[in-house]
């Protein structure tokens, strides 16, 4: 397991997704016909796929990247603020939390963002 802070993993995934989207055809991927994914302007984007592959690719087009990147960056920013608060004791509210308790809080509040980030990055980060 990596020693990267979890918000660094999420930001790395956002950066990768943004970079991948920037290198693809920017028109929406609109349709899948006869084994080819077609852009909204009528140009073929990808061929030789199964119908389910094509439907998935057309649905999760580069247009999805911008809001997904924004969500991942917002999660990373929030996580970076929350973890130090969770790690420090607040005598009126809670004593010092253990690493396991902080990890459970991270998983509860940011687990989906971290899981998606690890999948985007293709490895066991954070």
In short:
This protein is mainly alpha-helical. The chain has helices at 6-22, 51-59, 65-87, 99-121; strands at 29-33, 36-39, 44-47.
Q: Could you state the oligomeric state of the chains shown?
A: single chain
N- to C-terminal distance: 6 Å
Low-confidence sequence ranges: none
- Strand/helix succession: HEEEHHH
Task: Give your account of this protein's structure.
The chain has helices at residues 6-22, 51-59, 65-87, 99-121; strands at residues 29-33, 36-39, 44-47. It is mostly helical and 126 residues long. The chain has a domain at 6-29 and 62-120. Helix 1 packs parallel to helix 4 and helix 3 packs antiparallel against helix 4. The chain starts with 5 loop residues before the first helix and ends in a 5-residue tail after the last helix. The model has no long low-confidence stretch (mean pLDDT 84).
